[in-house]
């Protein structure tokens, strides 16, 4: 299997014992990926997305059924009268496209065995001299904490445009429920960022729960689209 530089990784026979003990090869790449070996990345991502989408749509349906149904329906009627259901459905298309792109990234990360918070792998040019290890992020000590805290911030900045567009769309029909969902979502992202700063796995709880809450917002958008088309 080729590394991200296109060269073949060192074999077990020429790895140093020190590198093996650290679980990485001589160039610093982990020997195994954190992705489950037996589960295809596409199946993993599609499974989580399907479950989360169903939860979000179910919560949105409950909010519509047991909340201010008449007020929600009056807003949906405005969307329908102005043929804006397609605008709302367009956000689902963006979601699907982002899912495919993330599956592509997941496949590449699994094959390269590059773990978070690393987002790229850099190579030191040595000319005719022996190759040096790849340049990766420092993950230990205060510098490691800084790198993970920075990556947690970038996670939010990368996702916030899509979050805000969905929030605005959902809030037009479901103003207060969407507001509550956004408050919970941001609280969970703060929890995830603090956890990520401590260790890479520390981000998982807040991110997963935050993802479910955001799926509720997307469920409101999807339900509005279905009713308005």
**Measured on Cα atoms, how large is the radius of gyration?**
22 Å
Q: Give unreliable regions as ranges.
A: 1-15
Shape: elongated
Q: Which range does the strand content fall in? A: under 5%
From the N-terminal CA to the C-terminal CA, the straight-line distance is: 48 Å
Q: In terms of structural class, how would the helical and strand content be classed?
A: mainly alpha
Helicity range of the residues? Answer: 55-70%
* Count of alpha and pi helical runs: 7
What can be said about the biggest beta sheet?
none
Chain-averaged pLDDT: 92
Number of strands: 0
Order of helices and strands: HHHHHHH
Chart the SSEs and their pairings.
Blueprint: H1 17-21, H2 41-66, H3 69-81, H4 85-112, H5 141-173, H6 175-198, H7 204-228
Which features does this protein show?
about 230 residues
What can you see in these coordinates?
- By secondary structure, the protein is an all-alpha fold.
- It has seven helices and no strands.
- α5 (141-173) runs parallel beside α7 and α6 (175-198) packs antiparallel against α7.
- The longest helix has 33 residues, at 141-173.
- The protein is elongated and about 70 Å long.
Give a short summary of the structure.
67% of the residues lie in helices and 0% in strands. With 229 residues, it is an all-alpha fold.
